[in-house]
Amino acid sequence: MNVKYYRNSQEIKLKNNISMYNLYGNEYKMGYDYGYFNKENINILNLYEKLCDSIKEKKFNEIDFNYIQRKTNNWINKLDKNEHIDFIKGMSESLNINFKKILFVIIYLEIFGYYCSIINTNDNGKNLNLRILDSNKIICKITKQFKLPLNIINFNDKYISIKYYLMANHHTIISNKINYAVKSHYRNNLINILDNEYPILFQIFKLFKNSNSIDQFEKKIIDSSLNEKMHILSYDKNKMNLINLHNQKTSEKKNSGKLYISDYSKIIDYYYKLPKNKLNTLDNFFELNEILPTRCRLFTVINDVNNSFIYVNNFIEKNEFVKINYKATYNQEDINNLLEVAENESKNERINFNYYICAIFMVLISYYFLV
Prior knowledge:
6-stranded antiparallel beta sheet, globular, alpha+beta
């Protein structure tokens, strides 16, 4: 295990190309630190070019590609004024890359499509969630070619996002109040996606951040104008909701038992009909992870909600689970100190910037009088 520190943030490199980040401060500052840790990892401009070529060659004709570019530009121009991309702007400053290029990569990687299995079980107060993220051959090839690391990002100890670097943003979120995982069918429903005011995962994430419970989150989703062939499974220690966003929004709620959505639902149905699989155990999920098809699998996450453990399998690198206690980051005193450091550094940066502007102004005045 390799640990690095930058300012008040921490990077922990685990095995199988999995990295964990503990980031503290405002969105911009966390994005800057995240970019700093990944400065030498990925050539984003090469990744951008590869994505554009793959979309044009394998996916869409020239007319469709130009339409996607126009729509993406409209989204980015709107997002430029949106505080929810301050994290990406911090990254762009740290990496010295135009933030629009980073947003293009994030949005383009969403267009290809993800095919997932999400299962939540809650029996006798034991809550477990299995999230398998599958994609397609193009995404798998790009992930392998650029060796995109699987990231577990802890934001101010408020929530955790599990994603690849620049990919699958806000698909899998874990927090004390609300957990959710998204299953989408982008390839089959591109027109609906592009008709949304903003990229749909940005909007879902915004609703998550503005919600205090899964019921409130569900209501905000149902009341929103989002329309896509997508399911969201949200859960906490006591209940779970499966929300269907397509056309007429509906939600299935349970306090116990099982809820799941998958491209392989028939296999899961059969599995749970077997007498030996009636119990709600981690072994069931480990076994399902092996049974379900893996031809385009990217990663698997099992969340043991009651015990604050996650089991992460970066399948595209190696079919092996890494156990992580996501509460074992810093204690509360450490967190308060780190947040204070982050705030003080922000103030110092503003003061230094003001001094810098004053110095430039004085030089210009001096030059004017000397001339």
